[in-house]
Write a structure and sequence with these properties.
Elements (H helix, E strand, L loop, with lengths): L2 H5 L4 E11 L5 E11 L3 E5 L6 H8 L7 E6 L2 E2 L5 H9 L1 E4 L11 H6 L18 H13 L15 H14 L4 E5 L7 H18 L2 E5 L3 H7 L2 E6 L2 E7 L5 H7 L1 E3 L4 E3 L17
Parallel strand pairs: 3-8, 3-9, 6-7, 7-8
Antiparallel strand pairs: 1-2, 1-4, 4-5, 9-10, 11-12
Helix pairs in contact: 5-6, 6-7
């Protein structure tokens, strides 16, 4: 399946035009980045640590403002948005973190329910303070990620892979149009990593949701993403359909170029001979 086939020719959900970001210490984190991402696409950002992946992600929900260029998400120019318009964008952008961000002493069900707080007025204390309809919805999301039997189990008793699936269920409870995942499998074993990425793929296909994931495990990106964008020193050096990529193409993303020669950073990516099985549309 190609990117064009998956997007169905839809209007771009995300558009970055000449986006640059220079921090007060002088670091140029993004350098003239331009990308167009349609609704429903699964995109993986790859690159060395410090290449600009996380910085780019934080521009999509307004946590960072660009030094130059424009960022449009769901029709809103996030680069200049504030107040109500920025809150609306953030409500429709789900974020899955590497460290899960769960409340350990709370049950899985309550953690998932917290994803609906943006739809409610006032604080909530405990599962039973949420409306019955939302409790039912939260349970359905736990069932969707394969953890319905653990609904009333404390989150801190789960394995890392299970915690990340609860975090995904919580994000789905938010009803986002865009899901961002920043190194969501960095602390997981290979089997759990594959399960989490397969889950993200399935959700995106079913919901026609745009998913952007930053990854260091290039073999996983090649196995499940529709499109791979590689960053090096804040610039886009690769933007291709994942199915057409070769090992040499991927290696170029990790190649540092100086005045004398091109050298490959020590953390070289490994490309699997049998990539993770993609879900069917």
């Amino acid at each position: 399946m190609t990117t064009t086939e998956f997007s169905g020719g839809a209007e771009p959900l995300i558009s970055l035009t000449g986006v640059s970001k220079r921090f007060p210490n002088g670091t140029l984190a993004l350098d003239e980045v331009s990308l167009t991402i349609p609704k429903g696409q699964l995109l993986s950002l790859i690159g060395l640590s410090g290449s600009g992946k996380s910085t780019l992600m934080r521009h999509l929900n307004g946590l960072h403002k660009p030094t130059g260029g424009t960022v449009r998400v769901m029709g809103v120019e996030v680069s200049s948005a504030s107040g109500k318009s920025l809150r609306q964008v953030r409500r429709n952008v789900g974020f899955v973190f590497q460290q899960f961000g769960l409340v350990g002493r709370a049950t899985c069900l309550e953690n998932v329910l917290s994803g609906a707080l943006g739809r409610l007025r006032g604080p909530r204390y405990g599962v039973w303070s949420y409306p019955r309809s939302l409790r039912r919805e939260a349970f359905e999301h736990l069932e969707r990620v394969g953890l319905a039997p653990q609904a009333y189990q404390r989150a801190d008793t789960l394995s890392g892979g299970q915690m990340q699936r609860v975090a995904i269920a919580r994000t789905l409870m938010q009803q986002p149009q865009l899901l961002l995942a920043d190194e969501p499998v960095a602390s997981l074993d290979p089997e759990s990593s594959a399960q989490v990425l397969e889950l993200l793929l399935r959700v995106a296909m079913e919901e026609k949701m745009t998913v952007i994931v930053t990854l260091h495990q290039v073999e996983l990106a090649l196995g499940w993403a529709h499109r791979i964008v590689g960053l090096r020193d804040g610039r886009v050096v690769l933007d291709r359909d994942a199915r057409g990529l070769s090992q040499d193409d991927v290696m170029e993303v990790y190649r540092r170029v100086d005045r004398e020669s091109a050298v490959v950073n020590g953390a070289q990516p490994i490309v699997r001979s049998e990539p993770v099985q993609r879900a069917k549309a």
